[in-house]
């Protein structure tokens, strides 16, 4: 009896907890929590014998149990799977952009729009054509150029919209075109352009519309829009536009002079189409004829009462 009391004094206090644990949980499942090589309580011979004699089902012998989940032996670790997936997808997926990088790109595009709006209409045309940008960008720039200095919030929103349109442009090309335009470096502009011939060919035609767009402070937007629509319709022989212009009765204008200007444009166009190329300054003659017709139509549009527009 004395030896039994002495043994009980030296046993850890946790013995009673683990002793009851052996009876609360079936020993058939004890191997899920304790490795088979570990003997927790050698003093408790009954608990040890029952645990050691417990058989492990054959379906579970090759499975390793760990805290938080189970994994088949020889399977790659989670970090190995992640690294392999990342390496395989890195070549297929585009590089991820941070929020700061996207913000910088948006600010750069807005600055492009501000720089473009400070240029003349032919310069804007040249840059947009060289950068392969759509007509929508040009129209948005023309609108912001017509806004007065007091329209601050409207300009801010318009420049933000222009920045969205310019966000897909090639950064190096846009920076080069804008800087070359500021410096007046025409040779560099031609080098950056997709086609030098296309730039030189369309410069004169852009001058026809330059006065219309840049005189927006003096003329209303409605007058400029109407004159431009008339010019395009008369040049392309649009019957609807032709009837609209010649049927104006609210004001008096020289219809004979208008017919003369239109015939001159058409005759030059027919001469070019018969030859097939620009010969003997025919392109310059066509540009001059269109300018004269454009000035006549703008003057006519300004005289029309606003109620008749």
From TrEMBL:
Residues 76-104 are annotated as: Disordered. CDD domains: YjgA-like (cd16331). It holds the Pfam family DarP. This is Uncharacterized protein.
